[in-house]
Write a structure and sequence with these properties.
Blueprint (H helix, E strand, L loop, with lengths): L1 H15 L1 H36 L4 E5 L2 H6 L10 H13 L3 E7 L1 H11 L17 E6 L5 H8 L5 E6 L1 H43 L1 H9 L4 H36 L4 H4 L8 H30 L3
Length: 305
């Protein structure tokens, strides 16, 4: 009997405040969709970091005859065979180095033509103008500075370059976008909480006569509060379900089908469905608990039970 009464009161409350209930559902759905999206964006950035950082190399470019005439780092002339052997030996002794690959001038020229074959500069370059280099794979990509400190400015070394620096700019942009999404999410959550509190206040005010009678006949505080808390929880749960639908649709449309980024951007390792599905229970739990707690504290102040 009590459960039936609570359920009937939930239906009455939702119908009486239909407009505000709809506003609560929309705001909860948007805020939790952004919440889930920011979590997935963090997973995507971490996945991309793990994928790309594992492939980046540190490159030690060696001085050639052209550099000796124009580059202050190569003022002592082109790299000698002894210097190359010493650099290679020192690299192999470093514990942070996993593998070392040598690239000759001819190989560098061939790779340049493969990458920039349409450039008018290709016809004016010759292999002897290209730089020999050592391509170093590190055990930990974060330890680039160890190699840079050891070889930058050394005789025969033109420069030490880290490909990770290029990726850091990209990941910095993605992280910035993620933080912007979190700020919007926080704003939407505040709006959702304010709407929930106002909806509960209006609902409590419109049924103040019924709650007064219930207090007179000795109903417990929880029994009086339960319908109001349940109304907020139901509205929030509907919003959370809509947010889950947004995330599933976004993953399906943006990555798998529709835009099909997984097919168009083969160089990016996108997050899988497991990352999306593991976030859905958290979103549903948040959509249920957040409105319930907001309603509970609002009722303590405005219902005075």
């Amino acid at each position: 009997m009590r459960a039936q009464f609570v359920l009937s009161e939930i239906g009455v409350g939702l119908r009486r405040n239909l407009t505000m209930t709809f506003a609560v559902i929309v705001s909860v759905a948007l805020s939790l969709a952004l919440f889930g999206g920011s979590l997935l964006m963090s997973d995507q950035v971490n996945t991309m970091k793990g994928y790309w950082y594992d492939k980046v190399n540190v490159s030690i470019f060696l001085c050639n005859k052209s550099d000796a005439e124009s580059d202050s780092n190569c003022a002592k002339g082109a790299v000698t065979e002894d210097q190359k052997k010493q650099i290679l030996a020192d690299l192999k002794k470093m514990p942070v180095v996993q593998t070392v690959t040598y690239e000759s001038q001819d190989q560098a020229y061939k790779h340049y033509k493969e990458q920039f074959g349409d450039s008018p500069l290709v016809g004016s370059l010759t292999p002897d103008q290209m730089e020999e280099s050592y391509r170093i794979k590190l055990k930990d990509p974060e330890k680039y500075q160890v190699v840079a400190t050891a070889f930058d400015g050394r005789d025969g070394v033109q420069s030490v370059q880290d490909q990770k620096g290029i990726l850091d700019n990209l990941f910095g942009l993605l992280n910035g976008m993620n933080w912007a999404a979190r700020m919007i999410m926080a704003l939407m959550l505040v709006v959702a909480l304010m709407l929930i509190v106002n909806t509960v206040r209006v609902s409590a005010f419109s049924r103040r006569r019924e709650t007064g009678i219930m207090r007179l006949v000795g109903a417990s505080g929880f029994y009086i509060q339960a319908p109001f808390i349940a109304e907020a929880a139901v509205a929030g749960l509907i919003g959370g379900t809509v947010a889950c639908g947004f995330l599933v649709f976004a993953r399906y449309f943006i990555i798998d089908h529709g835009l099909a980024l997984s097919q168009k951007l083969n160089l990016i390792n996108f997050i899988g469905w497991d990352a999306v599905l593991t976030k859905l229970p958290l979103i549903l739990a948040t959509s249920l608990l957040m409105p319930s707690l907001a309603a509970f504290f609002a009722l303590r102040k405005y219902l005075k039970v």
